[in-house]
């Protein structure tokens, strides 16, 4: 299994990039969003990769973060979602957008991806909603490719921002992960907990774990 490639960009096409790794060219298919942030030809880059093997086909898919790679793997486990549809979803929403949409059950957002209809979008949310907390917990520095793995170049880690000026999430990823873990230990359903944490993390500026957990418990408390 080829899990990561470090090399130099030979050229970029509409749906893939050719990476020169010590004289060997690897054709790596990427989402539109990932392709847009890759450096120009001749510059170094590293990509996490996933190898798809079939009887008549072998394809490599590239990602700038482990979160993006994990969502690709999970999306392709859903009936009706192939590699092309998975990359379309990631290209339209980015890995963070996919995490939020699935955690909050917002299947309409998934329809922004080319070729994804309402029934397929609903199926994605239903089948993957309980898995969203695990993927969201990966959103921290522990999953970054180390810059030393790319000769003389900085590694591109996140392809998610569609607009350069987009602000970072208010609550830190570690706070989100701690809150999800705490709510799960208290017996709350993973999907419900993920939806609440995703909503609160965007509302609470600089929230730490304790603050996020308290707010989530208050929000999820039975209404009297």
Protein architecture, described:
Its main location: cytoplasm. InterPro entries: DNA_helicase_Holl-junc_RuvA_I, Hlx-hairpin-Hlx_DNA-bd_motif, NA-bd_OB-fold, RuvA, RuvA_2-like, RuvA_C, RuvA_C_sf. The protein has helices at about 30-35, 65-75, 85-105, 105-110, 120-130, 130-135, 175-185, 190-205, 210-220, and strands spanning about 5-10, 15-20, 25-30, 45-55, 55-65. With about 220 residues, the protein is α+β, with helices and mostly antiparallel strands. A five-stranded mixed barrel has the order 1-2-3-5-4. A hairpin with a 3-residue loop joins β1 and β2.
Topology:
Elements: E1 4-12, E2 16-21, E3 24-29, H1 32-37, E4 44-54, E5 57-63, H2 66-75, H3 83-103, H4 107-110, H5 118-128, H6 132-136, H7 173-185, H8 190-203, H9 209-220
Parallel strand pairs: 3-5
Antiparallel strand pairs: 1-2, 1-4, 2-3, 4-5
């Amino acid at each position: 299994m080829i899990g990561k490639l470090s090399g130099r960009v030979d050229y970029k096409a509409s749906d893939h990039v050719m990476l020169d790794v010590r004289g060997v060219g690897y054709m790596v298919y990427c989402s539109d969003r990932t392709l847009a942030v890759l450096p120009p030809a001749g510059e170094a880059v590293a990509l996490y990769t996933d190898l798809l093997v079939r009887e008549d086909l072998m394809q490599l898919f590239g990602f700038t973060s482990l979160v993006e790679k994990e969502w690709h793997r999970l999306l392709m486990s859903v009936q009706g979602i192939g590699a092309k549809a998975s990359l379309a979803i990631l290209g339209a929403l980015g890995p963070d957008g996919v995490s939020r949409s699935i955690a909050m059950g917002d299947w309409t957002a998934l329809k922004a991806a080319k070729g994804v209809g309402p029934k397929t979008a609903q199926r994605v949310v239903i089948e993957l909603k309980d898995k969203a907390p695990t993927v969201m917990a990966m959103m921290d520095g522990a999953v970054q490719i180390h810059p030393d793995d790319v000769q003389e170049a900085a590694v591109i880690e996140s392809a998610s921002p569609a607009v350069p000026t987009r602000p970072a999430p208010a609550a830190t990823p570690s706070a989100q992960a701690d809150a999800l873990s705490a709510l799960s230990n208290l017996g709350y359903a993973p999907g419900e907990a993920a939806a609440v944490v995703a909503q609160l993390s965007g509302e609470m500026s600089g929230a730490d774990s304790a603050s996020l957990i308290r707010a989530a418990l208050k929000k999820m408390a039975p209404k009297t």
